[in-house]
Design goal:
heterodimer; A: about 70% helix; B: two-stranded antiparallel ribbon
Amino acid sequence: MDIQTMTFIMIGLSFALYIGIAIWSHASSTREFYIAGAHVHPVANGMATAADWMSAASFISMAGLISFMGYDGAVYLMGWTGGYVLLALCLAPYLRKFGKFTVPDFIGDRYYSQTARTVAVICTIFISFTYVAGQMRGVGVVFSRFLEVDIVTGVMIGMAVVFFYAVLGGMKGITYTQVAQYCVLIFAYLVPAVFISLLMTGNVIPQFGFGSVVNDGSGQFLLDRLDGLSTELGFAAYTTGTKSTIDMFFITAALMVGTAGLPHVIVRFFTVPRVHDARKSAGWALLFIVVLYTTAPAVASFARVNMINTINAEDGSGTPYSEAPGWIKNWEQTGLISWEDKNNDGRMFYAADERNEMKIDRDIMVLANPEIANLPAWVIALVAAGGIAAALSTSAGLLLVISTAISHDLLKRNLMPDITEKKELLFARLAAAAAILVAGYLGVNPPDYVASVVAFAFGLAASSFFPAIVMGIFSQKMNREGAVAGMIVGITFTASYIIYFKFLNVELNSADNWWFGISPEGIGTLGMLLNFAVAITISRFTAATPDNIKQLILNIRHP
Amino acid sequence: MENEQGYWRANLRLILILLSIWAFVSFGCGILLVDWLNQFRFFGFKLGFWFAQQGSLYTFVILIFIYVWRMNLLDKQYGVKETHDAAVDGTSDTDTAKTSTSKTGGSE
């Protein structure tokens, strides 16, 4: 059977499974629609959180990014996992105890202010849409490469499936499909990683494999080989990287704090029965996430060695294009890889200097990896299904947050407080449907700044939500005026810095012009510090927190 | 009240200890001390590189489970008990959440 038929079968089967689960678990109340009735088992919630969190970016792009960045890639590995420690210790248990539906709920109630609620709603919607656009794009890429349908059709199919289970099942449907999607995506990620680790180092466990000796009798460690290859070709040594220490520090911190402040992650902890379960659930979520995140750097270094060896040939003379393996020609059709024979020798060569003749998009590393390593067709099909599972599970979680923000935070708690439960549920479904259409449009016509806006999502979450929530729990003195001022200063500062360097003056976006050498990706950390400073100062000079709010704070601190 | 304060203080102390370890493995070993640690070998890895791409991640998972374990002990020590059904958690805010299932969204 060829790869295409196999991929059709794999993806078809996985879709049938998701739709089956959706029908079995449709939601009948707003409580079920928003937080799955708060009846989700902590381990199941951990799995759902992991699938929710690991997006097309984690599955498809992350190993590729690390593969090209080497040591510097650690900002994503530590940043996107370290946030869960903050979440588990400082946010999840107390928010669960608070026991409502959304992040704006908490901000609005804790700071007794509709302004604070509105700021939170706007941030939530903005963050979630930036995120979801990338997911739909991921679905499109997988479809166009493996099923050879065009990207528009791919996105349509993806939209239809998400529409079905998100609109029908709400959080309940999404949670149980995410559990299934986690299983699909982690299996799809591990199988090729184990295969490749075995082929290259003889070690079954990829996490140990990339610290082992290469399997060719040379007795050289894989990472030493990679450092050697990299410097020979004019790249920085793989295990040291090029980012400055201060930038590494700020980016990692921004991603950690941003992760802990992302509304679609936080809301998952509202779905478990007890505070005790919220703590436990965060642990399980991180465990499930770390399985993929510790495999990714292994995949990255295997892929790098394999790719260099395939293109430059083992002896470094360059592989003749006429003998190029199938995957190079397959990916050339998508435009994600290209070869220009600069020295007219008919051979490909990849390097950092003038010898280079290749253009390779980082996004193909995971998807092409099984082909590069010559793995069987079913593994390649599995990876395609895994990529789609990752994109769909994250989109669904985000769409739900958007629809809740509109039906619950904006309509019910702000504009039309008198609507009935039934009406609210209807609005939630309509909002989810509308959000899917917008997301689909963004997937088909992606703004070229998709990659840049991710920095935005994390920067904003870090500089607005995280400080407001943490101070809301840990400080009784923090009042409405302080929190609102802090959020506004934090967001304005972070957004201006990112817009200035990423959109208005792209040519100035280099370390020489950055403040203190902090890149736009890391500026959220500074925004967060500003938020804290402004909030604390203002709260000293304005009216104290009312007594009933102090009572609320004491209440959420105690399970 | 005194009991509640003791519980909260013990919780804060635990959080501070765990977060120091969190910061030490990631920002410390993974970033600030990475060059110095790289002179050491851990199997085929340079040690600093290993902390940045593997070690700190494992530590994060362990930290959360230690938190869960210690908090369960604290809950027992201070006699903090949660009712099994969230919907009858006893507090006013979860009560409103409960009633929202029965069509009278009320104060929601």
